[in-house]
Amino acid sequence: MKIHCEKFAIGRLGTVTSILLVAMLVYGAIAVWSAGMGAVIVTYTILLAIWVLLTMPRHLIIDDKSIVITHPIGQTVILKSEITEIRAIERSEIRGSLRLFGSGGFFGWFGVFRNSKFGTYRLYCGQLENLYHIKTLTKNYIISSSVPIEL
User: Are 80 and 151 in contact (CB under 8 A)?
Assistant: First the structure.
């Protein structure tokens, strides 16, 4: 049984984006709080940050039977028996996708996205490099991996 495990690294762009977004969230929360409108918006900001930290992808594990993306509060399991297609894609193929629910660079790129080429898909990437489109019987996934992904 061959197993590959890698940590999702967010890279330089993801790090810079995350630092800038955290700074903007803190500044915005302080500004709103000092304007007297604070409790609801500050609470929302804190809950959003907690959600991002709990759902961001941490590790990619590939074995003979499945592809597993781990999160701090669980995991996403893609059974190889349900996969109908895997292929490498270019970053340009997901450019302009609509983010339905997720993070577009804040500690990585992950969540539910949509575009005309893939329809609705789940994105799990630390960096937007070495991308693979995985189509199953019911869902589409796009993940990044440092090793080729095969059936």
Answer: yes
Q: What angle do CA 151, 126, 132 make, to 5 degrees?
A: 25
pLDDT, tens digit, for every residue of 68-117? 999 888 899 999 999 999 999 999 999 989 988 888 777 778 889 999 99
**No. of helices (H) and no. of strands (E), the chain:** 2, 10
pTM, two decimals, is: 0.77
Residue 135: its pLDDT value, please? 96
How many structural domains does the chain have? 1
The pLDDT value given to residue 30:
75
Residue 142 is classified by DSSP as E
DSSP 126: S
* 151 occurs within a structural domain: no
Q: Could you give the 3-state DSSP secondary structure of residue 5?
A: strand
**Structural domain of 75:** 4-144
For residue 48, being part of any structural domain is answered with yes
